[in-house]
Structure formats: structure tokens, C-alpha cells
Amino acid sequence: xxxxxxxxxxxxxxxxQRGYRLRPARLRDVPQMLTLINGFAxxxxxxxxxxxxxxxxxxxxxxxxxPDDGVAATAALHVLWDDLAEIRSVAVSxxxxxxxIGAYLVExxxxxxxxxxxxxxxxxxxxxxxxxxxxxxxxDVLSFPRKVWSECIRCPKFSNCDEIAMSRPVARAFTGRLxxxxxxxxxxxx
Length: 190
Hints:
Elements: H1 3-17, E1 21-24, H2 30-41, H3 51-56, E2 61-65, E3 71-81, E4 84-92, H4 101-116, E5 120-125, H5 128-132, E6 137-138, H6 145-150, E7 164-169
């Protein structure tokens, strides 16, 4: 196994050796997911989420469960239409930073998008360097009108959004090596 498939398998094996595993989110995970996501939101790293949003969209989420079945990391693939999905709420507990868990979760979301037949995924982020290493490219948020007019318009930051839109064709073959999560700690590069 080579390339991205090998990298993903290696990350999964390394996690399993330490008692961590990838699984779909469960309803009982919501309080821990909320704490993890909103902890980073309080630092300006991402948008906050409400408990009702997490419960309503629980099927969108993957989690990395720790050895005690607690939530150590999370990410969601939120389908907007038959041609587009957003990867959002990528949050990795600080104890796991720098180990490639965020990159692993993003690629698992891209795999899910491919399984669903979606041609494109996008993110709105404060960390473009991280996503650039995963071969996302900057985009104009207005190229995603379903997102803007169904969700962004309700956001308190709508008129002064500081997130950077990035997208990636799902079918694009990933080249290179899966990066570590060190860029998650980098400041915004515009």
C-alpha cells in the first residue's frame, strides 16, 4: 500500500496501538464534542457550534475515540447538495496535536464524499496552510451560494467573515505525503 492509502492505514494503525479508534459520532458524544469544538472557538480558531446543531447533524460526524471511549478529535462532512459538501468542525485535542490526526480526519471525510459521489468538498477556515498541504485551493466563498444563502447568512460574522474558503475536487488523486497537524498551530497566512 502506497501514497495516501498507505499513510491513512499507518495513521490508523498508530492510533490503534495506543487504544484510539475512528468511529461515527454517537449522541452521548455531543457534550464532549461541544467542549472540544467550542474550546477552539473561544480562542478564535473556528466557529462555535450549539448542542442542537451537533444533535441535528450527528450523522455528519466522525470522532477519534480515546482508550476510554471519550472524544479526542472530531470532524464532519456536511452535504449541502448533490454536488457539494463542507468539511467542518475539525478539532483535535491538544494532547494529540502534531500527530496527523486532523489530516487523517479530513482525508476520511474526503473518502466519504467520494463514496457518496460528491465531486467537490470545501472548507471555511482560519488555517489555510493546513488545508493547502491537503491540496485544497483558495476559492471565493460566493462560488458556494448554497452555503452562503442557507447557513452563512444566519452567522453573526456574516457581514465581517474572516474565514478563508478553500475547495478540492474529490476525484483529484492526492499526491505527496499526508502532513502532520503542526500547521493547525500556525497563524493565519493570507
